[in-house]
Structure prediction request, 585 residues.
Amino acid sequence: MPVLSVNRLTKSFGGLTAVSNVSLELFEGELVGLIGPNGAGKTTVFNLLTGVYAPTSGTITLFKDGKETSLEGLKPYTICNAGLARTFQNVRLFKDLTVLDNVRIAMHKNIKYGFLSGMLHLPSYRREEQEIIDESLKLLEIFDLGHKKDEFAKNLPYGEQRHLEIARALATNPSLLLLDEPAAGMNPAETVKLTELIGWIRKEFNLTILLIEHDMSLVMKICERIYVLDYGKVIASGKPEDVKNNKSVIEAYLGEDVSDA
Amino acid sequence: MAKVIKHKGIKRLILIILTYSIIQALISVGIINDYLQATIATICINIILAVSLNLITGFTGQFSLGHAGFMSIGAYVCALITMQYPSTPGFVLGVFAGAIAAALVGIMVGLPTLRLRGDYLAIATLGMAEIIRIVFLNMKITNGAAGLNGVPQFTNWPWLFVFTAGTILAISNFLKSSHGRACISIREDEIASEAMGINTTKYKVAAFTIAAFFGGIAGALYASYFYFLKPDLFGFAKSVDILVIVVFGGMGSISGSVLAAILLALISTYLQSFPEIRMILYSAMLVVIMIFRPHGLMGSKEISLAAFERIGREGLKYAGFKRK
Prediction:
């Protein structure tokens, strides 16, 4: 069953076509990689999927709990509430807030009490806040951040900030998670730990994951399928080993073979 | 956990009652004379204005230069109602009618302007306040530039206290709620906030509206204490005055705004004895203080009861140690 279906997605900025006719299909429980050289349009694809940009043409459809949602033209917050969460290439935490608050904010859509109840701290406020705190702590515990719940996000080491960002995305209860270069800036040991973590949360939270990554060893190890993007177009897709040996992929990464010329 | 909350709540209540009764006692004994009472009224009104503006500027991160506009709406609406019905129920009705009118204008102005950011938003809000001022200047019912004279005086210490404490509690409670956190997340990172499912436009407008509501209350109290209103009282300079209190106390600190409102009013009252150089001294002081505390008196921290207790304990320990 598909979770996300992208059909002939195109985005032009003036005369520049950053993404052209990209079609993707993600199935339930899959872990798919989106790779490509610098400037291939990977992050633009993410921004189109999450509503930061509106596509020039093409369709994006998200399936969750038997419901179909067309995402093109929707605002980022509606897309998030429809079940698509993301992390950012450069970590975008709420830096001056505590670890706990970062996660609690992402649970905002679960809140049912109104403004007045929030101002007067009525019983509904107390009950729901307690639930949210419990949920958040459970989530933080999974990422081994429970004991740091009162620290400011900016004071965490870089690796933990990355983890917190994933925890925050999971707090929105998504069915599809987009990870934008989760291993960027991590050392090899941290990357190994992250690889395990991604595999684990996929099972635990019953997620479908699409990730952009430069670290080839990570992509090849954990992704079941890979899409390769170059100059805004999908130039290859399939199993990691097939993609690895694909001629146009090698050309895109290493340049054309010039020995014959 | 429940025990701790109760404990805290009781302590807070004691503090509130104590503050009220001490000032009330000083007024009835006559130590606080009429002149000082006017200063207290100014302080309370400024606290309400600064705390509500802080919700927009310090917590939601939107720059507004039009708070005096909301204040003037509250002031005129309350004045007109109390002049028609000069009684306590009339006054209460006036305060809330003024606050609601200000909040409605807040929504109307907020919806189109809050798409703007930073300096653009500042200019738009400044324009809004000017429009409101000019409307009052040209309306018959507000008596134009000559202003309204003889607004019945109902604002006294109990009312000032109720509304000031009410504002502080409502806004600090709001900030602890999920809606308040949504506002704060906009200040922290608007893109991330939107990506985490928060309708940032809605919460910006909400913050703007709540702040306008309380700004309206402050205006109403002002009208009913100083019994004279004219549009010029609510010009650009007044908006800047409020912003100065917020920045001086610390963006994103409620207790900072309260502290700054008290300090600045006291400084300004004290400087009345040097009328010629008053404004020069006042400005110079602001410059000096901002050089040494660029994030304001409190930064984004809050004074809590626990902090007082800690200071008290440490102080006792220190004193005991010294005596030995």
